[in-house]
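Pasting as-is:
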Amino acid sequence: MAAVRIVIPDDSPPVISGTPALERIRASAETIVHTSPPDSEDDLIRRLRDAHTVVNIRGYCKFTARVLESAHGALRHLAIWGTGTDNVDLAAARRLGIVVSNTPNTATDAIAEHCLALLLAVARRLPHLDATVKRGEWERGMLFQCLGKTLGIIGTGAIGTRFAELGRVIGMRVIAWTLHPDPAKARHGGFAYTPTLEALLEEADVVSLHLRSSPETRGLLGAAQFARMRPGSIFINTARGDIVDEAALAQALRAGKLGGAGIDVFLKEPITNDAPLLGCDTAVLTPHTAGTTPEALVNGLNLCAENVTRFLAEGKVVHRVV
């Protein structure tokens, strides 16, 4: 019987390299770690050759049907570090009998805190005011106060629900809309669901996006939706870039329809020089880093290692997507 091989095709920039989680994985089977991105789909296919288990660190690796079919035969388990699986053709994985696991809820607190940081940075114009003071200027003006305002949460999974809690702590009224509402969660979390997404957009002073990328959600928020939002309102996105029409958001910001935006995720990552949001002075942008705290990284890597080692030992994973 051939030896089991584990391949990490995409630890760039390094996340798992040099960690106890990687040492745990190495102890279970031969492990190959690539610390540069694959330069093409064919290069990714070459890296996955003879892999029983693949550990996916970065979303730029796309596990298309072609990639999975090329690896089929040896490949039994694709272990995702992180929650998102939009870089994986899940239907192909299911058809080929490849187990896909992920590590949900390991960065919930970190991402919710980042949402709050983005909200306050936009509301209080912190990056702009910091820059003016450092230039020797003394620019003052009216700022946005969160107390008493309405926070609208789109998507009430773990992160959305946690940010709803933080919003309530700073004195905001919280409403929510999601594809699959949970009345018990709303009662426990102290928020109310709106009947439609449009109702939320029209009522909220701050809108924060927390949906997963899926065929149902891609492109969900565009020009029509931003037009419904209240004048001067704030938009926050730490979910996925492809849910939002970035050009439409940028237009709403430049036109003064929205008061500002805090964005951690983009359609193209790393962000390109022609990205529409780069020209928006009222947007605070961060490089998809909301979940990168030491605590969140350790939690996620340890759960990923647990998925890998448990599957090798028992044929089971802690959290199975497919």
